[in-house]
């Protein structure tokens, strides 16, 4: 059985990379999708839909998760048609926009419908197991030296980007409004 350690050592780096990318994308995209979904909630049609979801039976709420799939399917076909006819940039943009809107709607629907969905025993059981699996994956990655190094590098890059952005804002914006008012007052006093 000497081949098992070899296979394990060959598969571990790519699987760690996939796990790393999955966790980063999950956290980033879900946060953005929830924020975008909160913006959707301000639209009266979606606010009315949320109120309807809160009144429905838990099993009926599950049907609402098919709404983004059904509603965006024609847009995905249109994106495929655009790409097939040589308009790949427009097709990719349409596909990304449709996927973003669908994910944001689903994230908002999940947040609103979660209390109702937890009434379904099978859903609660599956959600508990998935969250436990995600927690184990996070714990494994957090203990990994590669993950810790990547987190430190990302924090340094983020701090550097913020410093550059602050310097650019200071250079572009110049002095604050209060500083400009004081400068004008000082000029008037010198003239008087």
Structure description:
The structure is a single chain. This protein is an all-alpha fold and 192 residues long. It has a domain of 118 residues. It is built from 8 helices and no strands. Helix 4 runs antiparallel to helix 5. The radius of gyration is 25 Å and the shape is extended.
Oligomer: single chain
Global structural class: mainly alpha
Radius of gyration: 25 Å
Indicate the low-confidence ranges by residue numbers.
Answer: none
N- and C-termini, Cα separation: 95 Å
Average pLDDT, rounded to a whole number, is 82
Number of strands: 0
Order of helices and strands: HHHHHHHH
Q: Number of DSSP helices?
A: 8
Relative strand content:
under 5%
Biggest β-sheet strands, sense, barrel: none
| Silhouette | extended
Labels describing this entry:
192 residues; mainly alpha; extended; 8 helices; single chain
Give a short summary of the structure.
By secondary structure, the protein is mainly alpha-helical. Helices cover 89% and strands 0% of the residues. The model has no long low-confidence stretch (mean pLDDT 82).
Give the SSE layout.
Blueprint: H1 3-40, H2 44-55, H3 58-63, H4 67-84, H5 88-117, H6 121-143, H7 145-173, H8 177-191
Helix pairs in contact: 1-5, 4-5
């Amino acid at each position: 059985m000497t081949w098992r350690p070899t296979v394990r050592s060959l598969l571990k780096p790519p699987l760690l990379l996939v796990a790393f990318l999955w966790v980063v994308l999950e956290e980033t995209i879900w946060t953005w999708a929830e924020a975008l979904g909160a913006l959707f909630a301000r639209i009266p049609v979606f606010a009315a839909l949320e109120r309807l979801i809160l009144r429905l039976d838990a099993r009926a709420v599950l049907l609402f998760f098919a709404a983004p799939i059904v509603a965006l399917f024609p847009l995905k076909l249109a994106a495929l048609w655009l790409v097939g006819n040589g308009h790949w940039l427009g097709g990719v943009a349409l596909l990304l926009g449709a996927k973003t809107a669908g994910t944001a709607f689903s994230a908002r629907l999940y947040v609103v419908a979660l209390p109702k969905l937890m009434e379904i025993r099978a859903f609660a059981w599956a959600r508990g197991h998935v969250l436990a699996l995600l927690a184990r994956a996070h714990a494994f990655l957090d203990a990994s030296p590669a993950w810790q190094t990547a987190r430190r590098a990302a924090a340094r890059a983020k701090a550097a980007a913020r410093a550059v952005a602050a310097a650019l804002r200071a250079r572009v914006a110049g002095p604050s409004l209060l500083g400009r008012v004081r400068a004008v007052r000082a000029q008037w006093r010198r003239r008087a």
